Backbone:
């Protein structure tokens, strides 16, 4: 009987397969993922846009591993034989169970996930999705959110400060109170702070008011140049200036805040050899006092720019390095009052249509002339600071080493009420709500949930990115999506001024801050619960089909040669996505192993869209659809425009190389989505 027991055990104890980690975090500068997620109540009656199924209550039945099922006439006889076989096996199991009953427990007490050993899948019953939705809405209360807002509000909690550390300790205490496994990690990062000598801006030799704000990671130097107004500093804004034969070389460029990040504005100006950039908040975009200072950073990247691609641990000996995203020119923020003093006196040509709708009311903005000399003096100091990231985890009952990450920025310049306090308060309240659902209502999440409080977010998601780099090179969502290829979503209140207080936010929300915060918390909670409740991840890989097709159409309209390769790669992705939808439609979605195989294929997509042909040090955001750099499809379109326009920057040989690498990246993604090697579609 022992031998029979061993044989039966081998039949039913398959090792679970693994799939890529999935994380849910915050985004940077409004970038949106093209991953689709459905949260409506009718999801119990369908299987998302990946392909609907008929298993309307799929999530509450016990499930056992089996191979991917394809229903066909040939399998009917197999089913009959299998039933008879299982009938016989059932007697043996019953006999053996009466003699000796062994139960396997899932234990995963270590918060470090790479130490969690695979366990045998057991049947896990959980609440219906409708029950979970109702519980979340009931337990996530404005009263608790308001309590958290008061507790975590702080006048000063800049990254690495005592105020930042005090908040970290509070959050850690909360997580422990909820019964969560907790841990922290430390990083020693290099950041900029204002020096003992204030940064200064001079116009025609005279100091223009007091300069209080600053931009971290600006080049530290003093430069002079003629003023040039460039609207928002977008690439199209500079093209409009060039169309007027206005040279940017050597100019001090004045641009409005908004529409794109400070770093992108500076990078655009630097690419045209501007000498410096001044960024101001125009009243048309910002309802703030005229002397309100702005803060930010100008590193075109995330994480510590002096350890690109690897984590900033203490005493770590790495060769001297710095990110290619650090600007070579100084950049500085100025107030509305300073900007008005300068721009009201600019001479030169009148600005293009649509550029004069701001602070100089009923006055056409001038672009500036050679006599409008501006001096920019940046004296920031580069220092090293220790930062802490705080983590709490709710262990999954089935796949403990597969996890969702909910993250919130903890630090801020000034009070940072909208920037960090609201997010931190919601993070803690969601942790309390979900742990309470587990303790008191019988909720059993299939996958783990990691709650993360990041530091140094104001310096470019440093905490989040540094934590990613121990995880391996595979605002906070942007590095997850484009640096590490992890599906991510993000939303937030935004503010970049020292007036980021609770009163300011209340005025902006018409005194509905609590109501909006609760709504935001419910969205995050529903997304999280859906991802840890269902067998199948609700991510629609077909969404990228239209994105790729759009880029291919743009390229085809500009070049005829070599387009067959790109069309073939696009077709491979289309067929792979359609095949996955078909596999979902014809699969038993109550079967854990089938869903795990499908989830593997879904989770390969984002990582496969990271270009393997560029260095993370030189091109931080390697995603060819959502990233930035010469490897992206958007860069291919721009390069084609430059070639057709006969620009000096155009290089046909370089374009051919970029074209080939981008094409094969798409084909590689299609291969990964197809699944097994025999399903790959390599026709190029």
Residues:
């Amino acid at each position: 009987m022992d031998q029979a027991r061993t044989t039966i055990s081998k039949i039913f104890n398959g090792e679970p397969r693994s799939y890529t980690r999935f994380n849910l975090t915050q985004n940077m500068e409004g970038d949106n993922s093209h991953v689709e997620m459905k949260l409506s109540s009718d999801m119990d009656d369908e299987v998302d846009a990946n392909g609907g199924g008929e298993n309307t209550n799929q999530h509450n039945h016990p499930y056992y591993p089996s191979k991917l099922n394809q229903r066909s006439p040939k399998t009917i006889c197999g089913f009959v034989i299998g039933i008879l076989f299982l009938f016989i096996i059932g007697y043996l199991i019953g006999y053996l169970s009466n003699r000796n009953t062994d139960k396997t427990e899932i234990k995963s007490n270590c918060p470090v996930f790479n130490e969690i050993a695979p366990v045998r899948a057991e049947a896990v019953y959980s609440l219906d999705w409708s029950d979970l939705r109702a519980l979340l809405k009931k337990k996530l209360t404005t009263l608790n959110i308001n309590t958290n807002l008061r507790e975590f509000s702080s006048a000063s909690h800049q990254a690495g400060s005592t105020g930042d550390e005090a908040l970290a300790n509070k959050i850690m205490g909360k997580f422990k109170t909820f019964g969560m496994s907790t841990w922290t990690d430390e990083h020693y990062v290099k950041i900029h702070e204002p020096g003992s000598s204030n940064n200064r801006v001079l116009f025609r030799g005279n100091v223009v008011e007091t300069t209080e704000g600053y931009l971290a990671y600006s080049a530290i130097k003093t430069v002079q140049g003629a003023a040039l107004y460039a609207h928002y500093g977008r690439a199209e804004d500079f093209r409009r200036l060039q169309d007027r034969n206005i040279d940017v070389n050597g100019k001090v460029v004045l641009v409005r805040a908004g529409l794109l990040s400070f770093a992108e504005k500076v990078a655009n100006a630097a690419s045209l050899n501007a000498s410096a950039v001044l960024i101001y908040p125009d009243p048309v975009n910002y309802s703030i006092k005229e002397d309100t200072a702005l803060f930010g950073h100008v590193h075109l990247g995330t994480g510590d720019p002096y350890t690109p691609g690897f984590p900033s641990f203490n005493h770590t000996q790495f060769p001297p390095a710095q990110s290619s995203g650090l600007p070579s020119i100084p950049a500085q923020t100025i107030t509305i009052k300073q900007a008005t003093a300068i721009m009201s006196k600019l001479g030169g040509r009148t600005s293009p249509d649509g550029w004069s709708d701001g602070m100089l009311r009923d006055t056409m903005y001038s672009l500036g002339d050679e006599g409008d000399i501006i001096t920019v003096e940046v004296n920031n100091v580069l220092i090293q600071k220790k930062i802490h990231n705080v983590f709490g985890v709710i262990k999954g009952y089935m796949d403990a080493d597969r996890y969702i990450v909910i993250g919130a920025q903890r630090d801020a310049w000034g009070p940072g009420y909208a920037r960090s306090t609201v997010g931190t308060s919601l993070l803690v309240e969601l942790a309390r709500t979900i742990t309470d659902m587990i303790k008191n209502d019988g909720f059993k999440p299939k996958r783990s949930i990691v709650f993360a409080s990041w530091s140094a977010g104001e310096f470019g998601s440093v905490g989040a990115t540094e934590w990613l780099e121990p995880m391996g090179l595979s605002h906070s969502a942007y590095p997850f999506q484009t640096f590490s290829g992890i599906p991510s979503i993000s939303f937030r209140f935004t503010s970049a001024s020292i007036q980021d207080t609770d009163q300011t936010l209340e005025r902006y929300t018409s005194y509905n801050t609590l109501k909006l915060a609760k709504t935001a918390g419910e969205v995050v909670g529903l997304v999280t619960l859906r991802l840890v409740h269902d067998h199948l991840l609700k991510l629609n890989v077909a969404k990228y089909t239209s994105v790729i097709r759009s880029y291919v159409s743009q390229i085809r309209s500009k070049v005829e040669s070599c387009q067959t390769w790109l069309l073939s790669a696009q077709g491979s992705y289309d067929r792979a996505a359609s095949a996955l939808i078909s596999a979902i439609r014809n699969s038993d979605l109550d079967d854990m192993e089938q869903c795990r195989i499908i989830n593997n294929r879904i989770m390969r997509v984002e990582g496969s869209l990271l270009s393997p042909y560029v260095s993370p040090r030189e091109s931080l955001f390697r995603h060819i659809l959502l990233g930035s750099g010469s490897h992206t499809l958007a860069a291919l379109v721009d390069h084609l425009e430059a070639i057709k326009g006969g620009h000096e920057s155009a290089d046909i040989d370089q374009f051919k190389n970029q074209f080939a690498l981008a094409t094969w990246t798409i084909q590689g993604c299609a291969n990964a989505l197809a699944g097994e090697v025999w399903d790959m579609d390599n026709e190029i």
